[in-house]
Write a structure and sequence with these properties.
alpha/beta, Rossmann fold, 2 domains, 6-stranded mixed beta sheet, 5-stranded parallel beta sheet, 12 helices, about 40% helix, elongated, binds adenosine monophosphate
Length: about 375
């Protein structure tokens, strides 16, 4: 099954069936490589009208981009290598389908998306070699020098890559991913369960995180708690954060992001994290995605507690009486925190929804009922 593949097409890590792929070669790098190939081919074919022959299916995007940049007379054709059962003892016989051109005396340039062992290319090459062409050249966008076993000359190489499984830009995995404009590489699957526990101030994130971290053996990071710890201990970070927090404003992103990274790195052996109170801005969300990606990890999902605002104000004022948190005691500061939430944080619902990772839960009810609702979501992540 593809998990939200379409929505995550712009992501740097995508999941197809149960495999994860990470963005590896950008559109720009591919375009640069093709530009160079076009310059070389143009130089070599000054007095010729070459026939470009793309090997389907994988080469369609490469061929389209290359011939669009080739500003001289040329012909374009496609073939497909098909195998059928032979009637004699030789078993499978390979045949080129779609080759209708008369190639005698012509300059033929085979366009391949990728050459690895060279086995397929050798079969194609052998078929063309019988056609009395004037010259037979090979151009491949991607080439794996470490596994190439043949003596064939490859005349034009776009990008040499190590022996890794790649998809995108015409190359498929189970027929999928050909439409991606960049190249993605197979990676080892993420090991952690990373949950963003989301919701407005007072939604019950802290209470639920304490229960969920035990249940799922995760490390709970509450950026609010870390700031408060630093304020109590009068650290430099605490001093810096205090004025923002007292007013119900967000602490600046750079400070918060650095702090969050340090907290994650302190727990590198964790099974995963519950992020509570982070990310709170889009730039924090992007920073978190990038940071996890460097570790080969991803956010598994954003689990959101949905609670009406009026109920939240009452809850926060009640909490302020017990906890002594100054930002919970003054209604105007509470309103400002909601304002910060609505203007900067609420957009994160869209951010994760676009990745197919937003899961809302009703945050009104008994603590136990809400834990059950959240667990049902987390179990399926
Ligand atoms: P909380 O305990 O999550 O309600 O956070 C209390 C306060 O800490 C917030 O009102 C902010 O001033 C600050 N804070 C906590 N997390 C963040 C964050 N991710 N970005 C910016 N400020 C934060």
């Amino acid at each position: 099954m593809i998990v939200k593949f379409v929505q995550s097409i712009k992501m740097s890590i995508i999941k197809i069936h149960n495999n994860y792929f990470k963005k590896y070669i950008s559109e720009e790098k591919i375009a640069e490589a093709i530009d160079k190939m076009v310059v070389q081919i143009t130089e070599d074919c000054k007095n010729e009208t070459p026939i470009f022959i793309g090997i389907l299916n994988g080469s369609f995007m490469f061929v389209a981009d290359l011939v669009r940049k080739y500003n001289h007379s040329c012909k374009v054709s496609f073939v497909k290598l098909a195998s059928y059962e032979g009637t004699n003892s030789t078993g499978k016989i390979k045949q080129l389908v779609g080759l209708n051109e008369d190639l005698e005396g012509k300059t033929v340039i085979i366009l391949e998306d990728i050459v690895d062992t060279g086995n397929t290319l050798q079969e194609i090459y052998d078929i063309f070699a019988d056609k009395k062409v004037k010259q037979l050249k090979i151009a491949t966008l991607f080439f794996k020098p470490d596994v190439f076993k043949k003596e064939l000359p490859i005349d034009y190489i776009g990008i040499s890559i190590p022996d890794k499984f790649i998809i995108g830009y015409g190359l498929d995995y189970d027929g999928l991913a050909r439409n991606l404009s960049s190249i993605y590489q197979l990676i080892t699957p993420p090991k952690m369960k990373n949950i963003v526990l989301f919701g407005p101030p007072g939604a019950g994130k802290g209470t639920q995180a304490d229960l969920l971290k035990e249940k799922y053996n995760l490390v709970h990071i509450s950026t609010g708690d870390v700031f408060r710890y630093n304020i109590t201990n009068k650290t430099e970070l605490g001093m810096l954060a205090k004025s923002f927090m007292d007013n119900g404003d967000l602490v600046p992103d750079e400070v918060t992001i650095d702090m969050l990274k340090a907290e994650v790195d302190k727990n590198s052996a964790a099974n995963g994290f519950i992020f509570d109170g982070f990310p709170r801005t889009e730039s924090q969300a992007k920073a978190l995605d990038d940071f996890l990606e460097e570790k080969g990890e991803v956010i598994s999902g954003m689990v959101a507690l949905e609670v009406p605002e009026d109920l939240l104000v009452t809850r926060l004022l009640e909490r302020g009486k017990i906890s002594g948190r100054t930002d919970d005691q003054d209604e105007s500061k509470i309103r400002n925190r909601f304002n910060e939430y609505n203007t900067k944080t609420a957009v994160l619902k869209d951010y994760y929804q676009l990745q197919g990772k937003y899961f809302g839960a009703n945050g009104v009810g008994s603590i136990d009922d809400i834990t059950k609702r959240l667990s049902k979501i987390i179990d399926e992540l």
